[in-house]
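Customer escalation, tier 2.

The customer says the design service returned an amino acid string that "doesn't look like it belongs to this structure." They asked us to rerun it and document both sides in this ticket. The original structure tokens are below, unchanged.
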């Protein structure tokens, strides 16, 4: 049990760093108050988790430890539901209902599509 916790913790550590760098890079290059960095990170994370679970469904391509490292650890540390919730809370508090609806809808739809596409990619290859 300790080994799997360390595996997940290492994945989460790397995922958190990757999230910070990716989100920051995108937000710096997009001149908008729209949280594009968080949206892109969450969509990439959804794609990756679909890809990783697709690989585990194909057989013994990924060991149980690697699956936990990549999905629970890395993707869990990489995606940012708490940031998503906070950004939506701010939009609602400021009365920006269109922004709230757009961001929430895009996040859910694009996240589900990215997960599906990641899984589909593995099945096609």
């Amino acid at each position: 049990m300790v080994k799997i916790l360390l595996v997940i913790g290492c994945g989460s550590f790397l995922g958190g760093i990757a999230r910070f760098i990716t989100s920051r890079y995108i937000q710096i290059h997009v001149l908008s108050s729209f949280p594009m960095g968080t949206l892109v990170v969450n969509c990439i994370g959804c794609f990756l988790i679909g890809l990783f679970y697709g690989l585990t469904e194909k057989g013994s391509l990924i060991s149980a430890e690697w699956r936990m490292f990549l999905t629970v650890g890395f993707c869990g540390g990489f995606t940012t539901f708490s940031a998503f919730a906070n950004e939506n809370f701010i939009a609602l508090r400021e009365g920006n209902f269109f922004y709230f609806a757009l961001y929430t809808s895009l996040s859910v739809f694009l996240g589900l599509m990215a997960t599906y596409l990641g899984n589909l990619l593995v099945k096609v290859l």
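Tier 2 assessment: The sequence is consistent with the input. The mean pLDDT is 93. The two ends are 34 Å apart (CA to CA). Sent an explanation to the customer and offered a walkthrough call.
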